[in-house]
Amino acid sequence: MAPEDQQPRLFDQCCLCIVCSKDLSRESAEQLATTLEEHGGEPLIVQPGAEVPNVARFSHLISNTIDFEAYDTTCDALIPVVKPQWVSNSLAKRKLANPRQYSPDPRLFMNDVVVTCGDIPEGDKDAIIGGVVAKGGLYSPRISHMVTHLVDLTADSDKARIAQAKKLNVKIVLPHWFDDCLKLGRRIDERPYTLPDPEIMHVGLDTPIPPQDNKDLVGASTTNPTKLPTPSISAHTNGQRSVFEGKTIMLSPDLGIGSHLQESIEAVLKQGGAEVTSRIDTADMLICRYREGFAYRTASRLNLDVGNLAWLYRLMTFNTYTSPLRRLLHYPVSRTGIPGFQGLKISLSNYVGEARIYLENLIAAAGAECTKTLKQENTHLITAHGTSEKCNAAKEWGLEVVNHLWLEDSYAKWKLQPASEPRYSHFPLRTNLGEVAGQTRLDRNVLERIFFPSEDTAQSPRRAMHSKDQNMVSVQAPPEKKRKIIDEASDASHGTPQTTGKSRRPIQTPARSRIMSEGKENETPSSTSSRKSKDAATARLHEIAPDIALYEKEKKRVGGVIYGGRRKSDEGRGQEKEKESKKRASVEAEDESDGDQAVEPKRQKKSRPPISMHLLITGYQKWIGKGNEKKEDADKRTLRELGIMVVQDARRCTHLAAPSILRTTKFVNALAYAPIIVSTDFITSCLKKDELLDASDFPLVDTEAEKKYNFSLSSVTSNAKKNKNKMLHGYRIYCVEDIRGGFDAFKSIVEANGGECMLFRGRLALANHSRREESHDDSEAEDEPARHEVFLLSSAGAKHGRIWPRFRQVAFDIKKTPRIVRVDWLLDMAMSQETRPADEYELTEEMIDNTDE
C-alpha cells in the first residue's frame, strides 16, 4: 500500500446517513456519497419516506430538512443533523466543521446566513456576529462568494464596491435588519433594509405596508378541514414512494366525520399503501381531534405520530412527511383551552389571507373569542404592524397591543404569556409580520407534562418489547464499509430489523442535553461515545445550573438581562441591596403584613401594637418640601408604633387627614370611601404626645371652603356610605388629552365613584357600549338617566374647542346626548357625594377663549 494511502482521511471515523427529500434528490445524494467515500466516509442513502435504521449507528445525519420521522430520535441521541454544505465546508477547512452552524432546524433562523461586516461601529459588529452565530449562521472576515449578507451603512464602502465589482450574489443590508430579526426571534424579509435605497429610511410611517403571501400556512390554517383534498400524483405513476407506504393508521371516532368521508379517506390511504386499523396497539399513526382519551394518551406515550385531520390532508396533498408538531394547528386541540384565555376578546389587524384564517382558528383553539371589529370590550389587539386605525384606538382604550408571536408562544407553551414581553410588542418599521406567522413549533415536553404524563401509567407490554428490540439493534456489529441505499424494497436486504411504525426513541437521553453537543469542531459523536457524551453533558449541566438559575431570575427584572443585569458577585451588589432595604424600610406598606415588616428595622424585636386605623394624609405641611423626607420616614415609623398605618391607597383608608378641604386627588378619591375626616392637627398632637389620641377630638372644620364649593362636610360621609362607590354608576365620561391636572387623576376619581372614564383625542368613534354596562341588567339601566348621555371634560380653550364638533358627531352616531362640561362638574359631585345636573357647568362655543394660544 502506498504511504499516502495510509494517511488518515477527513471522514475516516464517520458513518453518515443521507436522508433524501424534495430538496435533496437521489442524484445529489449519490454525488455527496461519492465525495464522502473518497475521503474515508461511510455513507448510507435513505430514500424519501423510507425509515432511517437505528440512528445510533451514525455519527451524522445529512438532510436539508428536519421533516423526517427519525429527527427527534436523532436529536435525543445527541447525533448532529447537518445540511449538505457541511461536507463541502469541512473539506475546505480540512477539519470537521461545527455541525450547529449547518443545522436545518428552522428555529436556528440564521442558518442560511453568512455575514461579513463593512464600515460599522465595533460594538454593533460584535453584537451582529454574536447574534448570527448563536442562531445558526456563520461569519466571514472577508468578502467572498460564500457571503450572503454584507452589513453596512452605505453602498459605497470598500467591501460593497468589491461585491459589486465581482458581481457577487450578496445582499447589502443595514444593521437594523439583524436587530429586528434578533428581537423577534424570526427571520424577516431583507427588502426594506437593503442598500442603496432602504425603504425604512425614506418611506413615511403612515404609508401602507403591503401584505405578503405566507406559503408556509397553506393547509395549516385550520384544525378541522371540511373538504377532502386532491391527493398528490400517485407513487405508482411517477415512481415516488408514497408517504403512507407501509403505515398502519388509526382514525379516531372523535373526528366526527360521516361514513362517506371516512370511506373516501380510507380509500386514499389504502391506495398509498397504508392499512387502516381500529386498534391503537397496532397503529403507527393516530388521527384524532382532541387531546384526550385512551388512544391519544397511549399513542403519545409510544411516541407515535399523533395529528389531526388537517395534518393528514397535508400529507395527502404534498406526499411529503412533516411532523404534526411542526405547525400548531396540525396537532389535536384541547376542549378546555389555555388557562387564562377564557374570557379574552381578541381582534386582528393587518393580517390577510391564510395568515388571518390561521390566527382566527388559533384564537378559538386557545379558548378565547376572536372579534371581527375592535371595541372597548376587547382585551387584546393582535396586529402585523403598528400603523393602523385599530392600533391607535386600542392604545387609546388601554388594550394590549401585541404581535402574533404572543399568541403562538402562549399556545406552544400552553400558558398565558405576559404581553409586556418586548418581543411581543416589537413591530419593524416596514414589515408585515404576517409573513412569519406559523413558524412556531409545539413543544413535546410541554404536551407530555400537561396532556399525557407518563408517570401515571405503567409501561405497556408492547413498548417494553419494542425497547428490547431496539437495544438488540444498537449492539449489532458495525456495517460493512460499502455504500447502502435504503428504500421501500431494500430494508430487509441488509439485515435491518423490521418494526411496525416509527422508531420509539431507542435512546432516552434527555433532549435538554442536546445543548451540550456543540463542543470542538472535529468531534464526531457515535454510538460508542453516546454514554460518555451524556455523562459529560449532565456534569456540565450541574456545573452551570447556578448561572441558569440566576439568568432566569434576572429575566424577570424590569429591563431584563441585557439592560442593567448584574451577576450576584458583581462589585457593589451588596451595597446596592443595603440601599434598597433602607429604601423599603422608609416606604409605607400597602397592607398590614407588609407594613409590619417594612416600617420597622429588623433589629427591633419588640412586638408592635395592632393597627387601629389606616390613615390617608394629604397636604401635611411638615412633610412638604425638599429635605423633609427623613422626617417623614421617622414620623411614619412613630405613627406605626402608635397603631396608625399611613397608607397611600384611598380604597384602604379608614381616616382622612388634611389641613383644610382640598381638591387634591387623594382628598377627592378618599371621600368616596366614607372615611372619618380629621385635621392634620391630629397627626401633630399624636407625634408630640407619643400616644394614640381620639380622632373625634380633631374634626376638620373649613366653613369657607364649604361655602365656596357648595356642600357640607358633615354630610359627605353619610352620602358616601349610601352611594357605596356607585354614585357615577352608568356615567360614561371622556376627557380631553391634555386636561389640566392630568387624565389619570380624573380617571381615578371617576372610577372611585363607579363610573367609566376614557381618553378622547377627536379621531376615533366612541364605543356603543362598555363592558361595565353589559354586567348590569335592563332594570338597573332604567334607573340611571345618565345612561343616554356621554360627557366630555374640557376647558374653554380654543385647542379643546376644536374637537367639540367631533365629539358631538360621534355621540350622535351611537344615539347618545353629548354634554361638554368643565371639570368642576366632576369635582363638585365627587366632593359632595351628590349628583348634580350638568347644565350650569356646560361649555358652548361662545365661551371659547382664543387667548390660550
Automatic annotation (TrEMBL):
One GO cellular component, as annotated: Cul8-RING ubiquitin ligase complex
Region (Disordered) location: 453-538, 563-611
Transmembrane segments: none
Gene Ontology biological process terms in this record: DNA double-strand break attachment to nuclear envelope; double-strand break repair
Domain BRCT: residue ranges: 6-104, 104-195, 239-329, 341-424, 605-700
Ranges annotated as biased composition (Acidic residues): 588-597
UniProt cross-references to CDD domains, sorted A to Z: BRCT_BRC1_like_rpt2, BRCT_BRC1_like_rpt3, BRCT_BRC1_like_rpt5
Basic and acidic residues compositional bias, start-end: 567-587
Coiled coil feature spans: none
SUPFAM superfamilies found in the cross-reference section: BRCT domain (SSF52113)
Domain of life: Eukaryota
InterPro entries on file: BRCT_dom, BRCT_dom_sf, CellCycle_DNARepair_Reg
Protein name, entry field: BRCT domain-containing protein
Species per Swiss-Prot/TrEMBL record: Penicillium arizonense
